[in-house]
Amino acid sequence: MKTLIVIAHPNLKDSKVNRAWIKEAERYPDIFTIHNLYEIYPDELINIEKEQKLIEEHSSLILQFPIYWFNCPPLMKKWLDEVFTDGWAYGKNGNNLENRNVGLAVTAGISENNYSKSGKYKHTLKEILLPFEITFNYCSANYKGFNAFYSAEFEATDKRIKDSIPQYINFLNSI
């Protein structure tokens, strides 16, 4: 089965890193399904049953997004709140994420050293992404970690982006 990549980027056409990553993943339609939330739901009215069925049709799930205020963009949060429902994702008979491999592909605007105990934010990106790990664990999914591109806002040179693509694809394939 294929991996579902749910991307939430409010301005993907102007993104350098996420757009390049998705463009590369699109080269493998037999392995990856790209699901762009901001494109599909510009009105933010999510078809919950459709989204749940889409997840069920895939063996693995990747959530891909730029870090926004130490979290995901608003539509990704809304999607999680509405799609990961009691009775479907968790709770009585809620086992649709059970044993499903899941991971995150994220971009952070500033450098990795800012995401450290001694850095600007005093926390690592792993710590900032902990709510996602807890959510996946709560739903009995197999959280496989994250792939990150740091300094996406200020140092996303063509070379750095190109060099990040194999790591991104390897991460997706490892899920």
UniProtKB/TrEMBL annotation:
Keywords for this protein: Oxidoreductase
Residue stretches making up the Flavodoxin-like fold domain: 1-167
The organism of origin for this protein: Fusobacterium vincentii
GO molecular function, one term: oxidoreductase activity
Protein name, as recorded: NAD(P)H-dependent oxidoreductase
Database matches in Gene3D superfamilies: 3.40.50.360
SUPFAM superfamilies reported for this sequence: Flavoproteins
Top-rank taxon: Bacteria
EC number(s) given by UniProt: 1.-.-.-, 1.6.99.-
Top enzyme category: oxidoreductase
